[in-house]
Amino acid sequence: MMQTYWKKGIANRRAVFELYFRQMPFGNGYAIFAGLQRVIEYVEQLKFSDSDIEYLRSTDQFDDGFLDYLKDFKFEGSINSAVEGDLVFNNEPIMQVDAPLLVGQLLETALLNIVNYQTLIATKAARIKSVVGDDPVLEFGTRRAQEMDAAVWGTRAAYIGGFDATSNVRAGKLFDIPISGTHAHALVQAYMSDYEAFKAYAESHYDCVFLVDTFDTIKSGVPSAIRVAKEMGDKINFQGVRIDSGDMAYISKRVREMLDEAGFTNAKIYASNDLDEKTIMNLKMQKAKIDVWGVGTKLITAYDQPALGAVYKLVSFENVTGEMVDTIKISSNAIKVSTPGKKQVWRITDLADGKSEGDYVTLADEDPRKQDSIFMFSPDYTYINKTIERFEARPILQHIYKDGKLVYNQPSLQQIKRSSATHLDLLWDEYKRDLNPQIYPVDLSQKCYDNKMMILHDMHDYVNHLKF
Ligand SMILES: Nc1ncnc2c1ncn2[C@@H]1O[C@H](COP(=O)(O)OP(=O)(O)OP(=O)(O)O)[C@@H](O)[C@H]1O
Ligand SMILES: O=P(O)(O)OC[C@H]1O[C@H](OP(=O)(O)OP(=O)(O)O)[C@H](O)[C@@H]1O
Ligand SMILES: O=C(O)c1cccnc1
């Protein structure tokens, strides 16, 4: 496509692309945006090396002139985006590229790859965090992640979404995420004895969490952990034990009794084994005595919904006379009809209660802050509407790149994580429940809606009059 644009002389025409997803992941009431840091890293290194160009030449698909042009390629144009940790919803732009057509086109797949994955994992993490409450929850997924990059960036996204620490030490180093972990069954198997293994571990570590389920949790694992903790006394910090199999409600209660009877009332019970928000909620209902949750596979692979499904669509394009013309993608499936025009998303907060009323999608030249009231209506069911009078409108898409230059000061990961929790506080609980949440309104301004309808009718007219 880049070669076509270049050869046909439209490569430098201004094009606006927007990235959005159509359905809320996991049936959740909100999603947590993540991926911007990696998008910036990607854009910063965007160029074609000599070996890239030689490779492209070897495919015999490209003109020499086009390949010469690629030698000096660099990102130019502007990117507006939701910022990491903010809440985002379906059918609203969460990233926007306003750039020469060829540049915007090149970014499509990379941006989708990054935002689709990281937003999905941050959202899954937030769902899990919502059921663990104040208990610590640890990211344990690296061994099951879809390769190493997913493990590291997925860990970062999970941290944004509410996880407290990770067993991925590289993610700890790269992003300053707290690291935490216990030990595996192999250590116990190497000694073929719980007691010998825990003793060896205790003699080589200060902080100790013993994995007690290798042979028999109640008969061997926990008694051995207690014995080692007593023998080592102050020489170690006996943090607790981890259970990784069996009926975790029953076993955790038994383990709690044993630890308490031995005087280790502060020792914590860690649990892992295919946990997710459903199992955790269920274990809590059963009053399982679990203090710390280790979650791996089902978080890092977004097990119950492995793709967010975000798309990247051309919404406006410069015509031959230099005017911007809004574009549409039509489908017989209503949800797949794109909304034309360069847009902005405004989070509307009712000043009376400080809670979010919904998101209001306008064309980019509209500013609801200049209005006394906003008429919000559902674009699918226009009879569902409301007028808001005392409100605050916060723009969700922020300037990240302007005319090729990075203009966004990236906050620290800690700030991002905190901002995510603050944004969630502004959402009514009805949108935050795990099961069948209320649907958060994402409404189009009248101007944006009318523009869409007009273009839709024009395109239908055009198609109906085609003759071949
Ligand atoms: N009391 C409980 N209520 C609901 N789910 C539980 C309870 N206890 C354990 N689970 C979950 O049930 C599943 C049990 O899986 P599975 O049978 O594979 O584990 P296991 O046999 O105990 O151990 P292993 O992983 O070694 O095979 C896990 O997802 C676990 O988190
Ligand atoms: O279950 P997850 O949520 O993915 O959490 C991580 C799992 O990884 C480890 O298991 P391991 O690879 O040793 O296999 P196991 O299932 O036999 O314990 C650990 O003991 C957890 O069970
Ligand atoms: O530290 C742990 O106990 C751990 C880490 C990753 C996966 N499973 C367990």
UniProtKB/TrEMBL annotation:
The keyword DNA-binding appears for this protein: no
Residues of the Nicotinate/nicotinamide phosphoribosyltransferase domain: 138-329
CDD domains from the UniProt entry: NAPRTase_A (cd01570)
GO molecular function: nicotinamide phosphoribosyltransferase activity; nicotinate phosphoribosyltransferase activity
Residue span, Nicotinate phosphoribosyltransferase N-terminal domain: 1-116
Protein task: Catalyzes the first step in the biosynthesis of NAD from nicotinic acid, the ATP-dependent synthesis of beta-nicotinate D-ribonucleotide from nicotinate and 5-phospho-D-ribose 1-phosphate.
Family in the record: Belongs to the NAPRTase family.
Name this polypeptide is given: Nicotinate phosphoribosyltransferase
Species, as recorded: Paucilactobacillus suebicus DSM 5007 = KCTC 3549
